[in-house]
Amino acid sequence: MVQEMSINGPAVLNETNINGTWVVNVTSIKRVKISEEALLFLTGSVSTILIPSFYTLICLFSLPINICAVVAFTLRIKPMKTAAIYMLNLACADVLFAVLLPFKISYHFGGNNWIFGSLMCRVVTAAFYWNMYCSVLLITCISVDRLLGVVYPLNSLSWRRPKKAIMACVTMWILSFAGTVPLVIDDQTFHLSQLNITTCHNVQPVHEIMLYYKFYFIALCCAFFILPLLITVGSYTRVIWALSRVPRGVLGSSGRTTRAVVMTGTVLVIFVLCFTPTHCLLMARYLQFNGGAEAFKETSSYAAYLVCMCLGSLNCLLDPLVYYFGSSQCRKQLSSTLRCEKLLEDISGHSISGLSSRLTRMRTTRSSDLQVDVPPVCIP
């Protein structure tokens, strides 16, 4: 995302003597002109306190949750079905996003001053969008997989195989990465002499917006948000409709319908809360741009966009709900873990002395019957 900036300055005449002939060169002094509103935003509490604080909370909660999800999917769930493969990749995308969040947190807390170099700015900026679009594509894959499994269970057996799921995940990673390559190629840093800071993906020249970002971000919105949203909503609508036609007497039908409804609601919340506001503001902002800087004079829309980007990071916390309601293997593993914890709590709740006395009586009884000395039981 970019902020408005114009470059202009007075002309300067330079005289050069070439072979006895004086040649006049007209150059210009480049000066950056940024609105007062933009400067206030870059130094205001929204971008230097509110946004990094929100990112900090997201990082603290999402990183351990998604790391546990990756470990659970990798080590505990065997054999791994197609849904679990998609969710493992989704958890990996969230972990990658959370690992890079400290750079943005440091940037905003430091007064929007980037100190990690131009290359790292490109990587972090591209990874931000990479995670968002990879998450969208993987959630779409999960919805299509659920559609095939519920509506076409027999005809889709050849499609719903682990190898093809892995191929689909690799394709989604490549597509989402390809969509962010321009952000890696183009320099995202810019030094503002007025504030003596170096911004990262906050300020770009207007001519670059006109020739580059307008068509780029509109294409991203259409290919990586609008189309996946339509596919996802259509898939879950078809799933719910198919499950609603199952007779009530069929064993487990009500539970499957409930899980499908909750899963659909969770996915829609992720799209509506995390992705829709960001893309709506992005498209509206660039569709208004007609080749001049007039449409970019309002910084309030850009501030709203950054806040929506914060909301977009909430998908890292909502994705575990997708894991639970979208994978029967995940539900069984979690239930098994909870039962083990409950059993350990019950055992630890028993009186040690009572357990010791019962073991002592058993030892005495066996000793009298077998007439063999049995060593005492030692309970830690």
From TrEMBL:
Disulfide bonds join C121-C200. Pfam families: 7tm_1. GO terms for biological process: blood coagulation; phospholipase C-activating G protein-coupled receptor signaling pathway; positive regulation of blood coagulation; positive regulation of Rho protein signal transduction. It is a multi-pass membrane protein. One of its GO terms (cellular component) is plasma membrane. It is found in: Cell membrane. The chain crosses the membrane at residues 49-73, 85-103, 123-144, 165-185, 215-239, 260-284, 304-325. Its main location: membrane. One of its GO terms (molecular function) is thrombin-activated receptor activity. The keyword tRNA-binding does not apply. InterPro entries: GPCR_Rhodpsn (IPR000276), GPCR_Rhodpsn_7TM (IPR017452), Protea_act_rcpt (IPR003912), Thrmbn_rcpt (IPR000935). Keywords: Blood coagulation, Cell membrane, Disulfide bond, G-protein coupled receptor, Glycoprotein, Hemostasis, Membrane, Receptor, Signal, Transducer, Transmembrane, Transmembrane helix. Residues 65-323 form the G-protein coupled receptors family 1 profile domain. The keyword Signal applies. This is Proteinase-activated receptor 1. It comes from Pleuronectes platessa (European plaice).
